[in-house]
Amino acid sequence: MQIVFTFKRFIKLLFLLAACTFIAVSYYYSERFYHFYRNVYYKDIRHFTADDIDAKARALLKDGKKDECMRFLDDMLFVFFNDIDVLKTSGRLYMQMGEKEKGASVFIEAIGSSSASYDELNLIVPELLRDGYFGDIRALLAGKSLNSRMRGFYGIALYHTGHYNEAVLELGSAIHESAGSGALYYCLARSHERLGDTRQALGYMEKAYAANPKDKNIREALLNLYRKNRMFDKAAAM
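Below the sequence we write its predicted structure tokens.
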């Protein structure tokens, strides 16, 4: 009886394994067929380009179909996974829909294989800066010829990633080429402070505070620098 029971159990397990294998193989080939169909439809029949994808996605967004637009872009990224223009277009659209992390990731992947225009950098870099992608900004802008705005962003990214000597050079150039902002002066001051030059740091932090006196971080940093430079009367007066 024990042998018969074990044999029946073995047959059931074998049948279950065969069923699972059949389902898995069917799913695998159905997925492959679906991907093949999408490739043929969009590439060979519709001859879609990045401009076509941009137009369709914007039409969907205009009609309030954000979820459908997301699915469409996901499909396009699968079909055109090595098309730089499509990657850039999709990255911009994701970011405009509020999917900043995904959009930034797609856009960075695209730029990693090509160059970016100033219009593209002006779109992506401020968003990356706002969300703290300092390492990505440094990688994107390193070695490029930059205008004063991008140089400022690059300097801020260098400060936040611990490249203080380079940050001093880039931030100093950005401030020299255009009007300095509280953020630029703050990062320049902090870079000098990290390099041990508290006198230089104090001068720039005072300028940061003058540009943005309501910023609590700047105020605390300035107080700290007054104390480090033994200017206790100025610290007490704040």
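The two ends are 92 Å apart (CA to CA).
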